[in-house]
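User: Sequence recovery, please. Input:
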């Protein structure tokens, strides 16, 4: 007759006291001895495994059968610890109910992007009426914080003037590149006058083409000085016959700035200099719009300076 020691009673539990599923697992794993008992430590380890990895598949606690594990009553899915207290598994997530609510809550206020977009639209409308406004003036007119206006005005900032740009500088400094080209033209005219006189534009063109004189083209000289006669007078050279009409300057400075204003008013081009000639090609049916090169040469300065000059003129009309 087989006897069971007192120590075995405390360290082992009868398979009959285990839930059916757990009893089947320990039997399949060969953990049951010849007396139908299983090591309590094995039961605890398997119970922890169930708690950790299988809780979401278990039915609610109210519906789970009550079982005895280690002489302690506990619902299925709970495992008794050596102290006799049941260890509860993580309750299953109600994923179905949560999934049904995601993205269905109605929004009660606009997003930050929508607020910023609406402010940009209002700024653009203001600048159409008052081009050349400063950021502070826009903020005051719209009743919006200056920090918000500074961010939202970026998509239309080519129509905005800085506070420092409101007053035109007393003297405009000619760019180094244009000044160098002007001096090169004067030297070429002086050299050509030694080979042909009076110096006509045809004679000058022939000398340049033959390589006997190095200098800018006749058209470039006219852009720099206004006319062939004025260029010759600048270096004290007698000019030949008058230059034909299409070589004379066609636009005054103010007329050119009028065209720049028309370009700046087109939102599709965002006031970018590299878009000027594309715009010119689209609107130049009668050839009345000068090229970007002509604009730079006759108005002078960088494109940023030309744009600022045009904005000052536009501002002066509505500010008056």
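Assistant: Recovered sequence (320 residues):
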């Amino acid at each position: 007759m087989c006897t069971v020691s007192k120590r075995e009673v405390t360290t082992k539990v009868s398979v009959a006291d285990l839930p059916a599923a757990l009893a089947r697992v320990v039997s399949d794993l060969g953990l049951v001895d010849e007396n139908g008992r299983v090591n309590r430590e094995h039961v605890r380890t398997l119970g922890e495994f169930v708690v950790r990895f299988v809780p979401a598949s278990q039915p609610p606690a109210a519906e789970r059968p009550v079982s005895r594990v280690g002489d302690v009553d506990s619902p299925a899915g709970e495992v008794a610890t050596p102290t006799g207290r049941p260890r509860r598994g993580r309750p299953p997530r109600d994923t179905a109910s949560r999934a049904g609510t995601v993205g269905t809550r109605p929004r009660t206020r606009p997003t930050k992007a929508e607020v910023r977009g609406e402010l940009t639209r209002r700024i653009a409308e203001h600048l159409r009426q008052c081009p050349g406004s400063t950021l502070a003036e826009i903020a005051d007119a719209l009743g919006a914080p200056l920090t918000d206006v500074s961010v939202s005005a970026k998509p239309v900032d080519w129509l905005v003037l800085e506070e420092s740009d409101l007053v035109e500088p007393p003297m405009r400094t000619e760019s180094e590149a244009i000044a160098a080209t002007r001096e090169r033209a004067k030297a070429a005219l002086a050299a050509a006058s030694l080979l042909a006189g009076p110096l006509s534009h045809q004679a000058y063109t022939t000398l340049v083409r033959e390589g006997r004189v190095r200098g800018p083209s006749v058209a470039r000289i006219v852009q720099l000085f206004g006319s062939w006669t004025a260029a010759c007078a600048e270096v004290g050279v007698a000019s030949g016959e008058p230059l034909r009409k299409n070589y004379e300057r066609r636009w005054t400075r103010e007329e050119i700035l009028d065209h720049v204003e028309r370009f700046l008013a087109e939102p599709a081009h965002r006031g970018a200099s590299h878009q000027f000639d594309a715009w010119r090609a689209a609107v130049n049916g009668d050839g009345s719009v000068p090229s970007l090169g002509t604009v730079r040469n006759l108005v002078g300065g960088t494109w940023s300076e030309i744009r600022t000059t045009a904005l000052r003129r536009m501002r002066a009309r509505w500010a008056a």
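Residues 229 and 239 are 6 Å apart (CA to CA).
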